[in-house]
TrEMBL record:
Its EC number is 3.5.2.6. This is beta-lactamase. It comes from the Bacteria. It is an enzyme of class 3 (hydrolase). Transmembrane segments: none annotated. The keyword Cytoplasm does not apply. Keywords: Antibiotic resistance, Hydrolase, Signal.
Amino acid sequence: MRRFLRNTVLVACLLALAPMLCAAPPATPAPTASAAARFAAYGQPGTFLLQRDGQRAQVVHGAALADTPLRPASTFKPMLALIALETGILKSADEIVPWNGKPYPDRPAWQRDMALREAMRTSSESYFGVLAERIGRERLAAWVQRVGYGNGRIGATPALAWHDGVLTVTARQQLAFVDRLRRGDLPFSAKTLAAVKAAMRDDDANGTRIYGKTGTHRDGDRTGNAWWIGWVEGPKGHASFVLGIDLSAADDRAMRTVLDKRIALGKQLLRDAGLLSK
């Protein structure tokens, strides 16, 4: 009788466990593509750096390019806006700066008077060229050194400072600058910092705010570099980022779509890092 009861209990236990024993194992999450694979699909070499809140800077991809001095191109424009507002040569972010009168056949949006938000969004060479000339070379050089931006050098013509090659910045230096801007750790007033950060607000994605600035430099001999720098703030965390692209091998067709592709690559890398929703 006791054996019968033991066997009955054993059978009951096995029947209770059967669904768990026979169930399929939990699905393994699909692996995230590596940063190297992302850049390979993009078709241009580059680097990607992250700095999460409270953590050290991380080179996710492209360690060699991360320390290569490059022209800042239009990623220098937030710095120009900070200096212009802090020194008062730009009275406010809403002040309308007149078009400099130069033709921009490839970028007709620059051929108009505008305020800071539109100038940052369109990356107007006219607007920021006017600011640079108002600031002047000596004052611009002094602020660049005070902030510790890039190599700290400014050429003879302020309106060419971000393209002439005298001022250079590495991706690692870019990350240090943009992370300090995000955290408000730059020698500018809270009002100035808030105005420039608001002008850089780019997009919202499922509750995450994205701030950014692109920059592209292209030489006549087909060499060049491109950037997307900024930060994200959201439920998945706050982090600053820098995407740098080597354009040396880019052909004309690639150049026509380089901006949209670059931002798409950067957002995918941010998703892979768990900072944007997939």
